[in-house]
Design goal:
Elements lengths: L1 E4 L3 H14 L3 E4 L12 E5 L5 H12 L6 E5 L5 H9 L3 E3 L4 H14 L1
Parallel strand pairs: 1-2, 1-3, 3-4, 4-5
């Protein structure tokens, strides 16, 4: 099972559709649900859709889950220093969400299960 933290309805709809297409069990996650009480293989985080305070709180909670859960942050707005800092902590960072990346993540989850 994977979770998706976003406040963007379009990204949520896209991810839900890709999840159905590629056989992924994807659950919507809200910042109020952090830290999560369920066990996930991966959590996708739409960095750009979260306000700065929510971003900080969410990342603090999610970083504490590493390395037990794969954390994937996608964003067009992260600068190189922020990307380096996140990847140094074990977070996967994407420049946006697309079906190809999502499908690779699903395949990785299925092989780890």
């Amino acid at each position: 099972m994977m979770a998706h933290l976003t406040h963007d309805e379009v990204n949520q709809c896209l991810a839900r559709g890709w999840g159905e297409k590629h056989g992924a069990d994807l659950e919507a996650l809200d910042a109020r649900d952090l830290p999560p009480t369920r066990s996930y293989q991966a959590i996708l985080v739409d960095h750009d859709s979260l306000d700065p305070a929510t971003r900080t709180k969410a990342l603090d909670h999610l970083l504490s889950l590493l390395p037990r859960i794969l954390i994937v942050v996608y964003s067009y707005g992260l600068d190189e220093d922020a990307i380096r800092a996140l990847t140094a902590r074990g977070v996967v960072v994407w420049r946006g969400l697309d079906e190809g990346r999502f499908h690779r993540l699903v395949r990785l989850g299925h092989s780890a299960a």
